[in-house]
Amino acid sequence: FTVPTPPKSLEITNVTKESMTLCWARPESDGGNEISGYVIERREKNSIRWIRINKKPVYDLRIKSSGLREGCEYEYRVYAENAAGLSLPSDPSPLIKAEDPVFLPSPPSRPKIVDHTKSHITIGWTKPLFDGGGPIIGYTVEYKLTSETDWSTAIQSLRGTEYTVIGLTSGAEYVFRVRSVNKIGASDPSDASEPQVAKEREE
Fold it and tell me: DSSP character for 58?
């Protein structure tokens, strides 16, 4: 057997002034021998030296890199290891500055109608493409009758990506939209859902 191919799809998330989280995907090939762990290195923008950040092998496909200096830019690369040794390094990540997030997130996807009865409607959506540089801490769900102009808030700081709005008027038609929230605030609203009448599902 041989060494593995390099890990793929290295991404940086949850950036703050002192830490960031790295995620990556398994190599295409383990070289014919089980991967025993991953080695992660980081480099400061103006340094020539790559520094290993994990003392012990990492078995997960993620690690938190902490102890960063605020305002400094860092790049990362990851190696896979098996009994034959270390792979070549992954492609390095882009240079990311250690700073607390300063942007609002982008809106989530347009919500889809998941289920409905004559008194409630369930919607689902997917997370935003851009979290603003900090974790999404929740979602705000808004709804209105299609005949009205003003939106009502059904819930704020919802953790999941599905929600059932209850207490609706049977036979009335509603639309829904969702906002992403990080610690800076709430995004613009998503596109509105397809209109849905509050009625029992037909089998």
Answer: B
Measured distance CA(68)–CA(103) in Å, rounded: 21
Mention every residue, 6+ apart, whose C-beta is less than 8 A from residue 120. Answer: 164, 165, 166, 167, 168, 198
Ranges assigned E (strand) in 96-193: 96-97, 112-116, 121-124, 138-145, 152-158, 162-165, 173-182, 185-186
Report pTM. 0.54
- Say if residues 116 and 174 touch (Cβ distance below 8 Å): no
Q: Are 39 and 10 in contact (CB under 8 A)?
A: no
pLDDT digits (tens, 9 = 90+) for 79-102: 999 999 999 999 999 999 998 877
Q: What structural domains does the chain harbor?
A: 7-98 (2.60.40.10), 112-198 (2.60.40.10)
Distance, in Å, from the CA atom of 26 to the CA atom of 82, rounded to the nearest integer, reads: 13
Q: Are 5 and 86 in contact (CB under 8 A)?
A: no
Q: Provide the residue type at 30 as one letter.
A: D
* 147 vs 139: CA distance, rounded Å: 25
Q: What would the pLDDT profile of 138-193 be if each residue is shown by its tens digit?
A: 999 999 999 999 999 999 989 999 999 999 999 999 999 999 999 889 999 999 99
